[in-house]
Write a structure and sequence with these properties.
By secondary structure, the chain is mainly α. The chain contains five helices and four strands; from the N terminus they run ααααββββα.
């Protein structure tokens, strides 16, 4: 949810377009969108799908344990220590620079 808000803050024209789409689907008198109307919110659904795909928060692999001592990138990892690798760790500098 935080990523959705960050992207909406970064791209106010997208926020306006989503607002207009939802307003068009609900009418001027209603503030609620029904499930049957949600399928018609193509831009909004695409935006949510794209933010989810880009942020990749749901694809976190399980942690691993080092089977032997190792040095990677100048850092020492002793046998038995827990290590994790996430796709976000590689993308974080790019994401921060893009915002």
């Amino acid at each position: 949810m935080e990523y959705l808000l960050l992207y909406l803050l970064k791209f106010p024209e997208t926020q306006d377009r989503i607002y207009e789409e939802i307003k068009g689907l609900t009418g001027d008198n209603s503030h609620h969108i029904t499930l049957d109307k949600r399928a018609e919110a193509h831009f909004t659904n695409s935006f949510i799908d794209e933010v989810t795909r880009h942020s990749k928060l749901a694809t976190l692999p399980p942690p691993h344990k080092m089977l032997q001592d190792a040095v990677l990138g100048g850092k020492r990892f002793p046998k038995g220590c827990q290590v994790t690798r996430t796709s976000l760790s590689k993308k974080l500098p790019t994401l921060l620079d893009a915002m």
